[in-house]
Amino acid sequence: MKPIRFLLSLLLLAGALCLQARETRSPLSADGPYVLYTDAGVRVIAVDASGTVSDTVSPEAPASFTVIDHRGRNPFEVSLRPIRRQNWCDRTRPDRVFVMSDPHGRLDCVLSLLLGNMVIDKDLHWSFGKSHLVMIGDVFDRGEDVVQIFWFFYRLQQEAEEAGGRVTMLLGNHEPMAFSGDMRYAKPKYAALAERLGMEYRELFGPASELGRWIASWNTVGIVGRDLFVHAGLGADFYRWNLPVETVNRRMSDVIFLKNKERKALSDTLDFLYGSYGPIWFRGLVLDEETRRPVPADTLDLLLDRYGVDHIIVGHTIFKDISTFYDGKVITVNVDNRVNRRKHRGRALLIEGDRYVVVGDRGKKRELK
Q1: Dist CA 317 CA 20 (whole Å)
Q2: What does R_g of the chain's alpha carbons equal in angstroms?
Q3: Which domains occur in the chain, in start order?
C-alpha cells in the first residue's frame, strides 16, 4: 500500500505544480505595437513572442517596425504615414470589388482569404492592382490578433493607393465598444496588458494614438458604384431621420473616443446613430423578429432610391454562408470565419462587373443568387 500512497502523493504534487504554473503563466502573447503621442515623446508599447512587454519613449516616432501575430508568425513591416479620411462615395466602380467583414482578431483567417483570392501576394503585399477592397467593420474582440489586423490593413491601404487601388475600412459596432471601454468580448490578454501598464485598455486607442486616429478616420457608410456598404443595416428609422451620409460619417467619428453613455447624451441624433436601430447595430434587414423592426420591402426600395444604389451590403449578423434577402437587394457577408475556413464554405464577396460571386479561401465558389 505504501508505494501506492507514495505514487498518489507524487501525482497530487504534480497536479498542484501544473495548476500553479497555469495560474502564474503570463496570459500575454505577441501584441502591438501601440504608438502613443505624449508630451514626453512617442511612446511605443509592444509584447514580444515570449510575452515580454517593452515600453519605451523616444523623441520621434519609429520610421518603421515589424508586426508579428500572437504566436510570433507572419511578420510584416509597417511604416507610419499621414492619416486622412477617405471619400465615402465613389460612383465609378472598378472592375473588381472584394468585400469582407468581421475579422474579429483572427489574422490567420484574414491572410488565408486574401491570399486565396490574390488580393495579396505570398509576401503579404497588395496585389489587387486598381481594384477595391471593402472591410465592413469589427476588427476588435474575440481573437488574439486585433492590433495586428489593424496594422495589416493600415499598411495595405497605403499600398493599394500607391497602386491606384483602394482599401475602404468601415466602422462596426465593436470599434466604438472598445473605444468606450467595453471589454466583454475581448480576450483576457488585452485587459492583462492594460493592468500591467496601469491604464485602461481604451487609452491605447485614444485620440493621442496612431491607431486611434486612423480608426477615427473611417466612415460608417460607404458607396462604391451602385452598392452601399454599412456594418449592420439601414431601416425605416434611418430613412425617417433623412441624414446625409456625410453627416452620419462625421458625427459617428467625432464622438468615437467618448464612452457610449456620453455619446448618446450629447444629442438625439447620436442616441439614434449609436443605438440599436442605428447603422452599426440594426439587424432588421436580415432578421424578421418583430423586435428587430424588419424593413418592409417598399421602405427598402425608398432607401435604395434615396442613395442611388441597387444593393445594401452588410456584415454584423452571422450566417452559415454569404446570403441574400429581398430578392438579392440585401447581401450579408458575415460568417464564422474560422468554421467557414475549415469547412471550405463562403467567406467573402467578389464583385466583377455585374457578377456577384461568393468566394472562399481557395477563390471563386459560385455566383450569388
Answers
A1: 40
A2: 22
A3: 89-367 (3.60.21.10)
Is residue 113 within 8 Å of 100, Cβ to Cβ? yes
Alpha carbon distance 227, 221 (integer Å): 11
Whole-angstrom CA distances from 349 to 50, 169, 231, 279, 368 are 37, 15, 15, 20, 9
* Structure confidence by residue, pLDDT tens digits, 184-225: 999 999 999 999 999 999 999 999 999 999 999 999 999 999
Q: What is the mean pLDDT of residues 1-24?
A: 48
Is the entire prediction scored with pTM above 0.85?
A: yes
Mind spelling out the 3-state secondary structure of the chain? CHHHHHHHHHHHHHHHHHHHHHHHCCCCCCEEEEEEEECCEEEEEEECCCCCEEEEEECCCCCEEEECCCCCCCCEEEECCCCCCCCCEECCCCCEEEEECCCCCCHHHHHHHHHHCCCECCCCCECCCCCEEEECCCCCCCCCCHHHHHHHHHHHHHHHHHCCCEEEEECCCHHHHHHHCCCCCCCHHHHHHHHHHCCCHHHHHCCCEHHHHHHHCCECEEEECCEEEECCCCCHHHHHHCCCHHHHHHHHHHCCCCCHHHHHHHCHHHHHHCCCCCCCCCCCCCCCCHHHCCCCHHHHHHHHHHHCCCEEEECCCCECCCEEECCCCEEECCECHHHHHHCCCCCEEEEECCEEEEEECCEEEEECC
Mean pLDDT across the chain, nearest whole number? 94
**Cis amide linkage into residue 59, ω under 30° from 0:** no
Please, which pLDDT band fits residue 18 given cuts at 50, 70 and 90? very low
Task: Give me the pLDDT at residue 80, please.
Answer: 98
Mean pLDDT of 87-97: 95
Residues with Cβ < 8 Å from 219, sequence gap 6 or more?
85, 86, 88, 168, 170, 171, 249, 253
Contact 182, 149 (CB under 8 A): no
